[in-house]
């Protein structure tokens, strides 16, 4: 959908009174936290000011280090967008308690793949994290950063799938115990579908990519896992480490089926030096 008046949201962000925001929220039909988060992201493209009511105007903690805290910081970024330039198409969404995770195809100061995480309190958004990466051509297996299944299923397996993925990040990505990878991923290339632009399907594609980085003296290193969020067959891990000799945040989305990791999407974003941060909250800071 083309946005012809994206700056309509700015007056809502900057000038609506608390009474008006509260009234809009009360008059709107009941919505889930996930629906509110999706509506807020889509408003970046369609210019609808109503979803601003889903943000707590007195408490909006921002972890995008290029954006200042609060509604004013959010509005300032939107105001910088060239008119009609923004696109925001949510590809996947799921909920884990007070957290909502969105996987989105953006055109936001250029085409980007992004993950957004929103934390809710009493039905309102009070905290936001994200991770963005430029969109690249399909990888060697012909997969993009967005295609693949989107439906959340296996809700009864949420806890088991989160535990499996958490174990994978700790054992394989952080400790490097590659001899144990068979516990997590099947042996055939078709057992592990890869959406990272630089990695092909299967363990063979993963091994080749990691080996090439190591040979270049730039190994991919995971030093900390800050959060694991999941619902059913989808699990997102938010980690910290080194990539291409830079300090980065890793957002890894895994799809799990029958007790194995079968598909992977991700974004990797460089963490800027402290003096460049627009807010004091840090890239992670999960409770």
TrEMBL record:
InterPro entries, per database record: Cyclase_SnoaL-like, NTF2-like_dom_sf, SnoaL-like
Keywords, sorted A to Z: Signal
GO terms (BP aspect): polyketide metabolic process
Domain SnoaL-like: 39-128
Signal peptide coordinates: 1-25
SUPFAM superfamilies tied to this protein: NTF2-like (SSF54427)
Source species, domain of life: Bacteria
Pfam families in UniProt: SnoaL_2 (PF12680)
Protein name from the UniProt record: SnoaL-like domain-containing protein
UniProt source species: Ferrimonas balearica (strain DSM 9799 / CCM 4581 / KCTC 23876 / PAT)
